[in-house]
Amino acid sequence: MAFVSVEFRLSERTACKLLGVERSSYRYEPRPDRNIELREELVKLARQKPRYGYRRLHALLERRGANGGQPVNVKRVYRLYAEEGLAVRRRKRKRLVRDRALEPRLIRPNQEWAMDFIVDGLATGRMVRILSVVDAYTRECLALEADTSLGSGRVTRVLERLIGERGRPENLRSDNGPEFTSRRMLGWAEDWKVGLVHIQPGRPMQNGHVESFHGRLRDECLNASWFRTLNDVRSTLASWRREYNCERPHSSLDYRTPEEFRLKAGYADVESNQRFPHPHSLDDQGCEIISKQNQTRETPVISG
Q1: Which DSSP string corresponds to 148-172?
Q2: The whole model's pTM is what?
Q3: By the 8 A CB rule, do 262 and 140 touch?
Q4: Continuous segment of H or E residues that includes residue 133
Q5: Contact of 255 with 249, CB cutoff 8 Å
Q6: Residue 300 half-sphere exposure, CB side, CA atoms within 13 Å?
Q7: Pairing relation of β-strands 195-198 and 171-174?
Q8: For a pLDDT cut of 70, what percent of the chain falls above it?
Q9: Contact 218, 240 (CB under 8 A)
Q10: Nearest Cα residue to 162 out of 271, 275, 75
Q11: What CA–CA distance (Å, rounded) separates 65 from 16?
């Protein structure tokens, strides 16, 4: 426009009319971007958590007080998310629609724990098995036990450690793997009065809580890490487990962390081991503590 006005000595009005350009468009000056700080914070956070979607990033931005501590509209975050090309690529899968089987209604922690194995590898090519235990109600990850071999004895020891920390679960949901169906596991469950819920073969989504958790574990931790040693695997899993329970917003919990959900639900102190004592525990006088649940045992426990 300036070239035509100078070269042919035309006024701005005439030049705009000849070229078919509105004068308001020619005189328009772009407004400064008021989302510069929010955009930078969003991009920085998305690079730290490349597998987070815009809703989870929005929850983290509000938690960290972005935008000067003012509330941020989720649609505004989505617009910036799309403009910066931060969308997570997901492979679309064809799914067969079936009627979903009825599941028990979960109303409290320790009502049901879900457990399963997931496999990964070291830089040397050696395989590593990871045992995951998840509270189906609070979505908390209770344990991530990693080793090259995990048998039923190791599984029961992990469960006993968790019971000492959080109390005894009512049910344990798992698949039909040999570690979960062995005589040792069945005897342990009978001894502790814990129900075992084995899903139907070929129906992994009947244990959907731990399957969904494994998807997040694989996507956000295992695929993003390079493990040299077994100790490296264990330290990385411990760090990610703390982040998952205490920092990562969970979409099924209204974008609260599992720990926040448990505290807000009124379960600051999860079932203690005093409510469900070990069948062979002793009191201060050296006498065996027998809970009400164990008073109906067919075979009484006789201490030496």
Answers
A1: S---HHHHHHHHHHHHHHH---SEE
A2: 0.69
A3: yes
A4: strand 127-135
A5: yes
A6: 8
A7: parallel
A8: 84
A9: no
A10: 271
A11: 47
> CA torsion 226→231→235→240, rounded to 10°?
50
Tell me the three state secondary structure of residue 175. coil
How many Cα atoms within 13 Å fall on the side-chain side of residue 255? Answer: 13
Of 51, 249, 214, 246, nearest in space to 144 by CA: 214
What average pLDDT is seen over the chain? 83
Across the strands, what pairs with 250? Answer: 256
| The pLDDT value given to residue 9 | 77
Q: Which CATH class is domain 112-264?
A: alpha beta
Question: Residue range 96-113: average pLDDT?
Answer: 72
Q: How far is CA 181 from the centre of its chain?
A: 27
Q: Strand pairing of 127-135 and 112-121?
A: antiparallel
d(CA 68, CA 64) in angstroms, rounded, equals 10
- pLDDT score recorded for residue 18: 81
Distance separating alpha carbons of residues 178 and 189, to the nearest angstrom? 15
> What percent of the residues of the chain are helix, what percent strand, and what percent coil, each to the nearest 5?
45, 10, 45
Chain-centroid distance of CA 177 in Å reads 24
Spatial CA neighbour of 172 closest among 92, 255, 242, 113: 113
The CA-to-CA distance between both ends of the chain, in Å, stands at 102
The sign of the CA dihedral 184, 276, 103, 144 is negative
Q: How far apart are CA 145 and CA 162, in angstroms?
A: 12
